[in-house]
Amino acid sequence: MVSVSNMLPDHGNLPSAKTIVSTAASLAASAMVIRSIARDLIPYEFQQYVYLSIHSFFKSFSSEITLIIEESSGLSTNQIYKAAEIYLGTKISPNTNKFMVAMPKMESKISTSMAKNQEIIDEFKGVSFKWRQITRQVESTRSTSHSGQYVNQQEVRYFEVRFHKKHKQMVFESYFPYVLMESKTMKEEKRP
């Protein structure tokens, strides 16, 4: 006859809570030491290479595509970036906690735009587009003066737009032209 007590694990062989906590703390401390040593000894470029390789590996399983729309394209302004900036300013919902407000001299209406590192979700023909404005500081030039060295910081801005990869063709054929057209209309409406 099979008894229920024979099927349950023997609690006498389980480690105590104190042992489990001390082992976890030990592993966490070891991981922190290894991480610190790795940051000091392994060149930054190699760290980035490993990070990007791992990131790319896991991204290959994703069904989403991310497009980067930079503020400038070479020496000129990227028209898609400017159009997205105007268009997304109208997509700010009542739930948005942080956004920018301005009223340029030559315009008659107040305009809103996305704040740094904020996300807005836009719907177009039943497809969801997740927009995020990214701003980061980059060192552009170094110059030396009598008192020391100056580092000139430059701000780089771009949008990331994420969507399901099956909609890639629709983005280029319908969505981006729609954003460009809408922003042009909005720009004309703002003029006095």
Automatic annotation (TrEMBL):
Keyword terms, alphabetized:
Hydrolase
Q: What is a single molecular function from GO for this protein?
A: hydrolase activity
Return the Pfam families for the record: AAA_assoc (PF14363)
| Domain AAA-type ATPase N-terminal stretches | 42-132
Give the signal peptide, or none. none
Instruction: Enumerate the InterPro entries for this protein.
Output: AAA_N_dom, Mitochondrial_chaperone_BCS1
Q: What is this protein called?
A: Protein HYPER-SENSITIVITY-RELATED 4
Q: Which organism is it from?
A: Sesamum angolense
